[in-house]
Amino acid sequence: MTLRIVVGGDNAGFNYKEALRKDLEADERVEVVADVGVQDPQDQTYYPNVAVAAAEKVARGEADRALLICGTGLGVAIAANKVKGIRAVTAHDSYSVQRSVLSNNAQVLCMGERVVGLELARVLVKEWLGVQFDPQSSSAAKVDAICAYESD
Ligand code: RB5
């Protein structure tokens, strides 16, 4: 199974977004990468606008997952989580990245360019591609409980 990934970030996440997009494009587990910007490090588009654009692609079923980068990885996660059906997390360690999928069925991984080293971020994204949520697992009911708090 291959993944359709959408990447995005603000100017503070531009360098990592570019590097990680190239890694994703070269990974055989990735079917296609869509880039919602920013495309220029001088672009001052606010991080919530980029994050929501990416999250909406996932929510509409146009992508399986999103990778979002800002300075901290925090603002993009907060914004992406405003989109109904989206579970976005900020994670900079291997265990949390894995559990974000296995425990939380999070479709959106957020990282901070000012927080984590680029080489670690690259390794974490590779690991992220290798984990899949199991809807038969004991975590499924807990994810359903999250979803139950979403209003129509
Ligand atoms: C820069 O605007 C910085 O605040 C942003 O990239 C992000 O870290 C916010 O959470």
TrEMBL record:
Gene3D superfamilies documented for this protein: Sugar-phosphate isomerase, RpiB/LacA/LacB
Keyword Isomerase: yes
Statement: the UniProt record of this protein carries the keyword Ribosomal protein: no
EC primary class: isomerase
Record GO terms (molecular function): intramolecular oxidoreductase activity, interconverting aldoses and ketoses
Pathway as given in its UniProt record: Carbohydrate metabolism; D-threitol degradation; Carbohydrate metabolism; erythritol degradation
Example GO BP: cellular response to carbohydrate stimulus
EC nos: 5.3.1.34
UniProt keyword annotations, A-Z: Carbohydrate metabolism, Isomerase
Substrates-to-products reaction catalysed: D-erythrulose 4-phosphate = D-erythrose 4-phosphate
InterPro entries in UniProt: Rib-5-P_Isoase_Actino, RpiB_LacA_LacB, RpiB_LacA_LacB_sf, SPI_LacAB/RpiB
Pfam families: LacAB_rpiB (PF02502)
Entry similarity comment: Belongs to the LacAB/RpiB family.
PANTHER family on file: RIBOSE 5-PHOSPHATE ISOMERASE (PTHR43732:SF1), RIBOSE 5-PHOSPHATE ISOMERASE-RELATED (PTHR43732)
UniProt name for this protein: D-erythrulose 4-phosphate isomerase
Biological source species: Mycolicibacterium sediminis
